[in-house]
Amino acid sequence: MANKTETILVIGACGQLGSELTLQLRSLYGGSKVVAADIYAPKQTDLLASGPFEKIDVLDPKGMAAIASRYKFTQIYHLAAVLSAAGEKDPSFAWRLNMDGLFHVLDLALEQGIGQVFWPSSIAVFGPDTPRQHTPQHTIMNPSTVYGISKLAGEMWCAYYFRKHGLDIRSLRYPGLIGYKALPGGGTTDYAVDIYRKAVEGKPFECYLHEDTYLPMMYMPDAIKATIDLMQAPAENISVRDAYNVSGMSFSPKEIAASIQKLIPSFKIIYKPDYRQQIADSWPQTISDQVARQDWGWHPTYDLDAMTADILENLQQQALL
Q1: Does residue 191 carry a catalytic annotation?
Q2: From CA 198, how far away is CA 49, in angstroms rounded?
Q3: For residues 77 and 21, is the Cβ–Cβ distance under 8 A?
């Protein structure tokens, strides 16, 4: 249940997850109580119209501290990151942004007495030696991308700040996130976002993964639900202080194409695997999220066909506007 006395900062609010999460938080806590922040001004008019916006660079701790002093935040959702595929193009910057940004947020929370922090991890923490089916909460993790390395290191630091300082930081290992409201941000699973846009535009989709590449995925409404449910759960229910496994569904490019073809029979898909195939091959195919289900009642709402129907309907409505 939402505590109306919270004042919340969402860093990375203009991204694929951040833009939708910010609006949902504003609907729960009130528009003025949720500050959207990013390094660039939002293109989404609803973000500017529904509440305050601040320009924030997570590599500028003094600038962040000044904004936090002004608003007296009680929660931070720190979403700013360089994602998997984009990170391989500039590994040193990806590491600096992902790690230094996290340290700046954690230290800011300690310095200003900010009670809760949410920081997203990823299935990218797993690697080629991880069990690929029903990947358990605690298992071998040897990530093969700079994004995954930074997320695994971040998980360890989050757990350390909890043990050392008592900071109530919570995290989810997101699978691939699929939404229709914002453009994808450079992740290996982004094909499952772009494919729907091509289908509605009546264009064939060129897929950079093999047709039978299974990956864990989650529809954006479920991702937002998981995030807020975790943050609202009583602290005594939280047994995992690095990051929880969560899962929605697993499917291949061939299966998502077939799901689209049930509603758009003329849709065509072409397979031209590239460097992202190697990244996908190092990740699990299915995830066990039993601990999240036991600790704070997690359960997804959408399966593949329900997600496909909802996305296509909304994209088709947008095309008519």
Answers
A1: no
A2: 29
A3: yes
The pair of structure tokens assigned to 182 is 């914002």
254-274 per-position pLDDT tens digit: 999 999 999 999 999 999 999
Residue 217: name the closest of 128, 304, 309 by CA.
Answer: 304
Cβ–Cβ < 8 Å for 2, 232: yes
The CA distance from 93 to 38, in Å, is: 17
What is the mean predicted confidence (pLDDT) over 194-202? 96
DSSP-assigned letters across all residues of 55-103: E--TT-HHHHHHHHHHHT-SEEEE-----HHHHHHSHHHHHHHHHHHHH
Identify whether the C-beta of residue 217 lies closer than 8 Å to the C-beta of residue 187: no
Confidence of residue 1 (pLDDT cuts 50, 70, 90): low
Selecting among 29, 71, 77, 147, the annotated active-site residue is 147
For residue 310, give the 3-state DSSP assignment.
Answer: helix
